[in-house]
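Reopening this ticket.

The earlier resolution said the output was attached, but the attachment link was broken on my side. Pasting everything inline this time so it's all in one place.
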Amino acid sequence: MNYKGNPFGRIVMIHGIRGENPEKHIGRLAPEFRRQGFSVIIPNYGSFNLFSLFVSAYVDTKVSSAILPFLQEDDILLGHSNGATLVYMLTQKIRVRGAILVNAALDADKLPNADFIHIYFNHGDMVSSLSALMPFTPWGAMGSVGYTGPVNHTVMNIDCGDPPYDLPQLDGHSALFEAGNTAPWARFMSALAIAEINHTYGSDRILQ
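Inline output:
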């Protein structure tokens, strides 16, 4: 595969229920991932209205069916909020190279089908906590507690409320996209993904 100068292949960033302009939230991660050597794709499936919140399982099934034909096994999927739910649903149909879940509205014991999984959470994420209480939805509290299921060597939990190094502390469902937070966390996230690629696959799976 040739990604025109993007040696680490494609990363598909999937936004949450507010999709009016993904460049104002999840798209803010894209510049750093591009600088690090990824080709970034950001599908826009629109926004949920009040009715769609209560039929989110149906809506997410339709959205994931629309995105699925465009995915490749070498992709890394990055989802925020309901976007992480979509990552989970998509990877029940195709195993991908990596999954990055940011404040995931997903049951805390569920995992995408991916070679490596990075889960970013913080205990101040009340949206994820409350989403777990909504009936007839696939949502859960992973965004506030991380992955809590059986030990799995493919999973890395990153508590953004107690961050590594000198990264900004995050508190809330969309704190990653606040001014001053996005760039340093995007550098960390992209570097960690690259380290995972190099460790898991070696140079033969760095796409040229």
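Reporter confirms the inline version is readable. The chain has one domain: 10-197. The mean pLDDT is 87.
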